[in-house]
Backbone:
């Protein structure tokens, strides 16, 4: 008999099943949720760098392809390391199921295309990450899917945009980079009443800070590149939903189009999730202190702070209700591109970088980077102004960050 690791063997050695693990509290889920051990009893999750699997006999492989045996068949369909990540994210999110993806954009594309067909209509937030807007403005219409973009912070705009063929609501909260907040309870209730599926891009928060399903969201999609990895190492994504949505709607799309995450990247994100909550809360706390330090000075110079943790944010109360903490990301607006670039160029500690969620503090000018692909009109309509800067606050000492920001604002004449 040839030895083969099967999912069944792994399950047996740990004795873990969903009925037990889903009772654990979030901090426990983050470290242990979804762990399967092989017969070697490894403490840290094993990294299964394999594209295929071998079988004891032909009947076994036939049974697996027929869905009668729960072993693995091919890593586009299942991989043990990826499966551990999926189970852990699902448990942290409070979702029935999750499928990991190669990147955040793979996750958004799969979450939308798996359920939309020609003739359907999608309502999306106008303030969104540049590539998410590209999906809505360019990709979906190419396949005959109608789209409408709205001011997602205004509840009535969601009501007004509904058509008989509306199938999906798609939004970020907070949005990148304008930090617009969506009233998730209102919007998700409205969607349910009209048989519409809500897809929430929760990249700015992660389940450590906000769990959209608690407010009625159907599908939560992630760039796990951001807070979940949290150390700027890999691209990764995830889509969470009901068993029915994941198995019957997402999986046929995913298995046949292949936007799958590499097992190595899945393993890196598994390690990231162990410290996610600590990082997300500490980074939020530092972001609030840095924001408080900057606000008066930015406003005195005629600029604007867009920070969900500051009472000046137009949706401050809603953000307090929906988010456990304000998150590590905020934006501010100064007097045009030249001043914004001058601030970036004067930074000595904070890096100029367009990533977010990293343990390093990073800052970028969205109009010339993450949102450069949009038209001037679209950027203006979304509120991505020429003078806007977006900050990702990391794990450095807040005093060093304040000193760096103080110096850079000073050099730029603020
Ligand atoms: C809100 C949001 N969604 C999706 C993405 C895309 O993620 P990825 O770069 O992992 O494809 C990003 C990237 O910045 C983002 O900020």
Residues:
């Amino acid at each position: 008999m040839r030895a083969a690791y099967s999912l069944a063997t792994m399950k047996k050695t740990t004795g873990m099943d969903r009925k037990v693990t889903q009772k654990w509290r979030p901090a426990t889920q983050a470290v242990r949720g979804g762990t399967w051990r092989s017969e070697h009893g490894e403490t840290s999750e094993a990294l299964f760098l394999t594209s295929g699997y071998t079988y004891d006999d032909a009947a076994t492989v036939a049974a697996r392809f027929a869905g009668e045996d729960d072993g693995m068949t091919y890593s586009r369909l299942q991989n043990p390391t990826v499966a551990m990540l999926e189970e852990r994210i699902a448990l942290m999110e409070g979702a029935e199921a999750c499928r990991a993806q190669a990147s955040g954009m793979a996750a958004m594309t799969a979450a939308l295309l798996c359920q939309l067909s020609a003739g359907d209509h999608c309502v999306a937030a106008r303030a969104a990450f540049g590539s998410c807007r590209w999906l809505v403005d360019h990709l979906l219409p190419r396949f005959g899917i109608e789209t409408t973009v709205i001011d997602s912070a205004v509840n009535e705009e969601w009501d007004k945009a509904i058509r008989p063929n509306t199938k999906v609501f798609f939004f970020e909260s907070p949005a990148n980079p304008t930090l617009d907040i969506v009233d998730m309870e209102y919007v998700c209730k409205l969607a349910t009443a009209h048989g519409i599926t809500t897809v929430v891009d929760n990249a700015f928060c992660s389940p450590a800070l906000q769990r959209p399903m608690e407010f009625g969201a159907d599908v939560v999609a992630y760039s796990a590149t951001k807070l979940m990895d949290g150390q700027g190492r890999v691209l990764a994504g995830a889509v969470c939903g009901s068993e029915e949505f994941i198995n019957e709607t997402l999986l046929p799309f995913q298995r046949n189009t292949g936007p799958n995450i590499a097992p190595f990247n899945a393993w890196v994100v598994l390690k990231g999730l162990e410290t996610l909550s600590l990082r997300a809360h500490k980074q939020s706390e530092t972001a609030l202190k840095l924001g408080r330090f900057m606000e008066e000075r930015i406003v005195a110079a005629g600029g604007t702070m867009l920070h969900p943790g500051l009472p000046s944010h137009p949706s401050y109360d809603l953000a307090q209700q929906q988010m456990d903490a304000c998150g590590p990301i905020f934006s501010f607006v100064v007097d045009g591109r030249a001043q914004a670039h001058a601030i970036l160029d004067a930074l000595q500690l904070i890096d100029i970088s367009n990533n977010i969620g990293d343990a390093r503090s990073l800052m970028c000018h969205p109009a010339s980077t993450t949102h450069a692909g949009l038209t001037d009109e679209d950027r203006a309509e979304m509120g991505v102004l020429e003078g806007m800067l977006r900050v990702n606050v990391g794990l450095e000492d807040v005093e060093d960050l304040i000193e760096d920001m103080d110096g850079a604002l000073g050099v730029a004449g603020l």
Remarks:
- The chain has two domains: 7-273, 276-411.
- Residues 1-5 have pLDDT under 50 and may be disordered.
